[in-house]
Every structure is written in C-alpha cells, then in structure tokens.
Description:
- By secondary structure, this protein is of the alpha/beta class.
- The protein has helices spanning 3-14, 69-79, 90-102, 115-130, 156-159, 170-173, 184-193, 219-230, 249-254, 280-283, 302-317, 320-342, 368-371, 376-388, 409-427, and strands at residues 36-40, 43-46, 51-54, 108-112, 134-138, 176-179, 198-203, 233-237, 260-263, 274-278, 348-352, 355-359, 391-392, 401-402.
- Strands 4-10-9-8-7-5-6 form a seven-stranded mixed sheet, sandwiched between helices.
- Helix 2 (69-79) runs antiparallel to helix 11 (302-317) and helix 3 packs parallel to helix 11.
- The structure holds (4S)-4,5-diaminopentanoic acid (HOZ).
Amino acid sequence: xxxxxxxxxxxxxxxPGGVNSPVRAYMAVGGKPRxxxxxxxxxxxxxxGHTYIDYxxxxxxxxxxxxxxxxxxxxxxxxxxGLSFGASCPAEVEMAELICGxxxxxxxxxxxxxxxxxxxxxxxxxxGFTGRNKIIKFEGCYHGHCDSMLVKAGSGVMTSxxxxxxxxxxxxxxxxxxxxxxxxxxxxxxxxxxxxxxxxVIIEPVAANMGVVVPKEGFLEKLRSLCTAEGALLIFDExxxxxxxxxxxxxxxxxVTPDLTTFGKIIGAGMPVGAYGGRREIMEMVSPVGSVYQAxxxxxxxxxxxxxxxxxxxxxxxxxxxxxxxxxxGYFRENLxxxxxxxHAPCQVTGVGSLSCLFFTAEEVxxxxxxxxxxxxxxxxxxxxxxxxxxxxxxxxxxxxxxxxVHTKEDVDRTLxxxxxxxARKRA
Length: 428
Ligand code: HOZ
C-alpha cells in the first residue's frame, strides 16, 4: 500500500467515505484518491512523491497557479497580525471596494465563507426583497449544498446518480422549480405556471458542474428580459466564472447584467471565502440595515481577505494574464478536437476561456440531458490513464478542466500527447 492508500484507509474509519467532499472519493472513476502533499505553480505532488500537471486548481481559484509568492506572503503577513478577530478589519473594506469597482453590477457586497453560503444568503435576500418564495434553477447547475438547491443538482450529486439528497425536507425543496439549461421556453412555462410567485432565477452563466456547458447565443439575454418582465431577480452564480473569465466574470463576457451575483473560493485565492453582492437597493435588505438576517464570525477573515486581495491586485495590474490563460484554454480545446477527430472518437469538447471539458458522447452537449449521455465508464478509463501519466483532471465527468495563468504551452502539449497516446493504445 502506498501512502495515499494508507491515508485513505485511515480516513475511511473516521471521515464519511474517507473524504471531506464526495467528488474526492474517486467513486465515479475507481481507484484510490491521491492525497496531496504540496502544490506549486501548475504542478501538484502527492504524498508518494508523484507529480502531476494540475487541471483542477482547487476547483478554480488558483488562477495564478499554486503557491504564488505574493499571495503566500500576503497571507503570512496577515496571519502574523492574528488569524481571526470576529470584528471588522481594513482588508474587508478594501476587498468590498475592489469588487464593487471591478464588477459594474455590484454596488454592495457581503463576505461569507463559501459559495454555498453565498448562494443560500442571496436566495434569502431575493425572497426578502420580492416577498415571493419560488426559485427557478436549472437542471445540472450546482449551487452548493444548501437544502433548496439540491434538486436536479450537478457536480457530485450528478455522478452519484442521486437526484436529490436525503435529509432535505419536502418543504425546503417545494419552492425550487427546475428548468432546462439553454431552453428559455422551459423558464417561460414555469413563470406561467406560477405567476407572481418567483423570487429569483439562479443560474451558472457558464454551467461548470455538469461538465462545462456554455450558454447558447441569446439565452442569457432572454433570461434577463424575462426576469425583468416578471419582476423576479436574476442571480448569476459566478463561483467558477467570477474573476476567471475576466474581472467582471461571465456577466462581462456575455454582456448580461444580473441583479445579484455569488462568488466563492476565487475571492480568497483558495482560502475559504465566498461573497454575494448586487444593486444597493437589494443589498440594503441585509441585516443590520434591512430585515434579512445573515451573519458569520469568520466572514471577512483578515488572512483570507489578504490572500484574495493579493491575487486580485496582481490580475488588476496584469490584465493580460487573462488573455494568456484564455488563449491557452482555446489552444487546448482546438488541439484536443483535432486529436479526437483523427481517432474518430465520439466525443465533444466544450468550454470557454480557461474552462474546458471533454464529454464522451457523440451528441452535442447543451444541457443536463445531453451531458448525461456521456459514457462515464469511458471517462473513468480515460481519467485513470491520465492520472497514471501525470495529468491530474477532476475525478468526475461532470466537472471542468481549469487552466491557470502559469500553465505553459509545454504543459498543454504534454497533456495532448498523453491524450493521443491514450487513443493510439486503444486503437492498437
Ligand atoms: N464542489 C466541487 C466540484 N464542483 C468539489 C469540491 C471538492 O471536492 O473539493
């Protein structure tokens, strides 16, 4: 048994499934999870000394790569002044000003500790603001694990084949309505069925938890108009796309303005952070100004704020890093398609900017239903080969390939070589 296996055996005795988040258990791909000892730039090293090119990047936030010296130093410097105060600190004001300055739709923002918390809070605010209860979400979109969002959810919920979670009372889910991604008529029908009752529509503007599914041209615009016409708020869950597709995330990329936005780990450069924000009149609903209660001892934590600010400041000073990273994502997708085409592999390569995905299906992937046509056994086989050859992609079909600003052309070429050798071996 190697050290990862030993740790997993120990973990299984004291942590459910041996993991602190289900996707990590490798249940969808087989094999034993790798326990990570360290990470630097685009590389990650497990406890047995195997090094991989990392395409997870802690599920998105490592935009500048792992262990960036300026981010590490900012966090360490802040830690030297105390780990948590449970009181206001200067860095959280700076962070709020920076976010409001960079994202035009956000006039006020509240820090929380995870994307799940951000979504849970934004939904409460939307309900408080509109005085309505129903929320429309999209099949296959994942908005964290708060009760009302575990309905037709993506990510680990999708791989395990469990449509909902046990322990979610019917009452919590009954106000969640589900529409089909990229299908505006499915949203219109819900508004017609529940007139004047929908508080908000929440969406990942680029769906990245059923694999990566990009919005069809005009879909987000139509969603915007529909929400405005129906008096419902539009919430963009930008936990994955925020500050990744550019400073103003998917909303800037597609030119569609939501009423509320949720962010996650990216804001903290990987530290446990989330945030939600939007128009002033909506955000002024939040306690202590308004009547929507939401709180948190660790919110605006000084160490997390310092790390997040350091990353955002670097990006602010070097916006060309986005161009490089998006270009590398495009280069990867283009060459991957070329290889798959050569081997007549029934696959789809999807993505935008630095987010990519490889689906094992002949069908074009535009929504949850088509994403589910992917042959997950074929993905698992591919995953195991990639891992064995030093390429670390998410251990599930229904996640994204994350490119950082430090992935080099050599890394991507090496990755493509491994893909090519995988198909050559299959054909042989
Ligand atoms: N929710 C993440 C995938 N979209 C998985 C997080 C983890 O396992 O760390």
